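User: My instructor asked us to take a sequence, write out its structure as tokens, and then describe one feature of it. I'm not sure where to start. Here is the sequence I was given:
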Amino acid sequence: MKTDIILCGVGGQGILSIATIIGEAAMKENLYIKQAEVHGMSQRGGDVQSNLRIASSPIASDLIPKGQADVIISMEPMEALRYLPFLGKDGWVITSSTPFVNIPNYPDMEKIKEDLLKVGNVILIDIEQLAKDNGVPRSANVILLGAAQKALGIDYDKIEDAIRRVFGRKGEKIVEANIKALAIGKEAQR
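Assistant: Let's start with the prediction itself. The structure tokens for your sequence are:
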């Protein structure tokens, strides 16, 4: 078993929380993990990217070579486009359909969608609206994780358990909001 995942978005969107949850689920399965993170120039608003490699045997490098990623999970559609050269030919892109416009020359959203849809396996999902509509506005990132669950090859219940462990210290209300968000994402990707 080997899954190479690129997580990307904008600072403050919860990319590193997604990486933590996936990593926690993988460690409980006694899988090997390597992770590399790149933060943008500013914590909130700069681009954030993480390479997360999971395997049943030791992993030599924490960086994913071009054309080798199995999954790109992106909180921001333009950021998903940025990392397409890393996607393998049968890879999946699971991305928010809502842009985070933080630059004056942000590309036309229709063109971004058109380019993303050229990839064979794409899930575009309005996680922001789903989060608001379902009363979990701070858990849009976990909705995206729920939509990506099948592509990751990690059992749903293992991710749910990881959410309980990762967010447990923040209290039951936070845990339950994130469990709900995971279920919303799983349902939305159908």
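For the description part of your assignment, you could build on this observation: Strands lie at 2-10, 32-39, 47-55, 69-74, 87-96, 121-125. Try explaining in your own words what that tells you about the chain.
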